[in-house]
Structure formats: C-alpha cells, structure tokens
Amino acid sequence: MNASVRSLVVLVPLTLTLISCEWFTDFKRQPSVATWEPLVDSATASRGQPQMSVSTGGTAMAGFQVSYGAFPATIDSMAAIPNPTPVSDSSLANGRKYFQINCAVCHGERAMGDGPATKFGMPGINLTMDITKARTDGYIFGMIRNGRGLMPPYNRIEEMDRWDVVNYLRALQGVNGRQVEVGPLAAPGVTGDKVPGPTVLGPNKPAPFSPPRSLLTAAPSVAQPPATPTTVPPVIGADSGSLRSGAAKDSSAVRRPRSDSLKTDSVRGTRIR
Q1: What confidence tens digit (pLDDT) does each residue in 38-66 have?
Q2: How far is Cα of residue 6 from the mean position of the Cα atoms in its chain?
Q3: Which domain, by its residues, includes 106?
Q4: pTM of the predicted structure, to 2 decimals
Q5: What distance in Å separates the CA atoms of residue 114 and residue 121, rounded to the nearest whole number?
Q6: Angle 159-173/137-146 helices, nearest 10 degrees?
Q7: Which of 115, 143, 175, 194 has a CA-to-CA distance to 128 between 20 and 30 Å?
Q8: CATH number (domain holding residue 101)
Q9: What is the DSSP string of 116-178?
C-alpha cells in the first residue's frame, strides 16, 4: 500500500467524522414545541393557548376575524365597529396621554401633521382635514390596529385605550364639541401616571385544558346512586357483653387495633377475632 492510499484510508474516516458534527449551532435548530403540539408530559397544556393568557375583557375584532394586514380593504372592513367608550373627561385625558406619546411625533400635538418627525423627512399627515373627519371611529381604530403605508401598527396601545385616542382625536378635529388640552403631560423622564400603566388585557383567566390521554379513554358510565346501608341490629354476646354487628363483615367497617383483635372466649376456650 503506497503512501497516497494510506493517506486516504486515514483522511476519509476523519472527514466523515468531522462533517457529521454540528459545529455551528443557532437558536433555529433546537428542541422546540410547535403551536398546538401536545407535550410528552400530558399534564402540561400545549403552547397554542398558554395558561392564564385568556382575557376576560374580550376584543373588538379578533385576529381570526380580520387579519392584521396593512391593506385598505382590511381596514375598511373594521369601519362599522362601534365605539363603546363614551366621551368623558377621563377618556379624553387618557387619550391625550397615548396620543402625545405615540402619535404626536408624526401628526403633531394638534394632529395637524407638523410633528417633530417631519423635520427629518417624514411626510406630514394632517388628521384634521375633512377626509379624516369623515372617517368612522371604527376606521380610525383599525388604522391604529393595523397601520398602513408609512404608519406602523400601534397594537401596543390596548383596545380600550385606543378608543380613548379616537375620542381625543375627535376633540382635536372639533367633531365632538369638546375642548381638550394639547402637548405632553410632563417633561421627558417623568413616570407614574404620566406614562401607560400595566396591561388590562394580561393573564386573568385560566385556559381550559384536558390531558390528551384522557381523550383516548372511553366515556365514563353513568354513576349509580350509592345504596342505602341496611342497619343490622347488634347482637349482645352472652358472656363477653360486647356488641357485635353483622356489618363488621363489611370491608368498609373499621378494623379494631391488633392488640384488641385477639380475645379468648370464656365459654368455648377458643380464640376469636
């Protein structure tokens, strides 16, 4: 065997060993659980509907009803959603907070399309024009939900707060007849009630879950009502004076301690239990 053949004999197994190893790993290639995939542990719910993740408040438009696509027809389909939040001082105050944090940077403090972002090339979108005034509350709600064109979706504004933004915008447009304050609520860096609080759509209701193995078992039969126990009159022993009942033969009867279970009958001279 010449040197070249011997080199192949050594290099081929070594090459196969090296290429069979995973040298470069990333998070895309790891053990994972797909949506609705039952886990091996049947006591754990699948990840499609995590426990404590269902809101009791519901939603105005679920994702399975209308997609989150940023398309005109998709947003038009939400135009008929009614505004459930009446125009009140608290709604307008909350709407101002979210508008100034999320919207004013582009649309301006008075929604006239003169926000700070317009100084850096962002087109100014005036929301006080007649074309926007003619839009329904549901349409504006859908625009905030889905976004469109240069506007990204603002689903970080939760639904009930989103309706407050709609009411505040209507006040800036002069549609609902309310006068509102404009401008930021506080200087940058101030927290507390000047910034959004905790979520109200967070985990607050356990998701129903049935272990997968329980679905494979046969349906349980109809439970029969328990039988009424029959009372057996006690029999008084002639010599020991103890009370013995026929119910003592039942497996459900309470056993006596071992130390008291062996006694000697004074008449028969035998041990009884």
Answers
A1: 566 555 555 555 555 556 666 788 777 88
A2: 63
A3: 72-184
A4: 0.58
A5: 11
A6: 120
A7: 194
A8: 1.10.760.10
A9: GGGGGTPPP--TTSHHHHTS-HHHHHHHHHH-BTTBPP-TTS-HHHHHHHHHHHHHHHTSS--
